[in-house]
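Hi there, hope your week has been kind to you so far. Thanks so much in advance, here it is:
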Amino acid sequence: MVTNINLKLLQTFLLAAEHGSFRRAAEESNRSPSAISMQIRDLEEQVGMSLFIRTPHCVTLTPEGRLLYDQVGHAMGEVQAGLARLTELAAQRRGRVRIACAPTLASTRLGAILMTFRARFPRSIVEVRETPPAGALALLQGQDVELYIGPEIPNLTEFHFEPILRDRLAVCVPAEFDTGAAALRLADLAALPLIALDRQTAVRALADRIAAEAGLRLTPHYEVQNAYTAVALAAAGLGVALVPEVAVPMLPGAGYRVVPVADPGAERAIGILTMRGHVLHGYSEQLMELIRSELSRG
């Protein structure tokens, strides 16, 4: 069985077959005819048969050589088409960055980041997908996006997470439920109408875990998908909203007070998630640097 044939030998074989001459193949590749002849002999020794019928003026393929030419020519054509497609994609992506972002960050921080980025790099195009963390993993694996801005996802080996800020859980407390406490524990919320995010969100998973460790079970009166909705309901006076602090700037503070959650571990890391080994291109590095700068301001 023939293995490990040097690709250069096959390229030389194709060139000689196409020109019907070792001399013309040598001229085409800026090598000597003797070098071409030596490479063809090496290939023939590896496959164990003659590939060319040699005459003083030209060379022609043997039946076995014709078979190899057809197969290798087709394979090389596929390789060239693949490389051309990659070149085309690289050109398309050169000025384009595709990212995903957690809904809370998309609502509060992303707009300012993208406006600053567009001002600095007016030729760039940033495509954004808003998705919770679970959806981001599939997008990154499929290379539909290059990076994800959102909370840390534990126990991931094929991804790299770069933490940028710590985001605590907080409670938006309307005046009618406000006792003036400087901080609240989850146990303090049991007697209040609770507005919480649904179980598909990373914030709810964190809150449920902390509650379970304290022997509690959260029983929301209102369960919503978006932190914006939770804050809006609290501002209307319907209850106290358990949200990440990063979500609070979405609405003016009039009508409620923001109180930190005092339970141990009531915080999470926010940062940039990428696939390990993925090479960023174009404006991606500049956008990541801007994200680091803007998020680190708190």
In short: The first strand starts at residue 52 and ends at 54. The radius of gyration is 31 Å. Residues 12 and 187 are 77 Å apart (CA to CA).
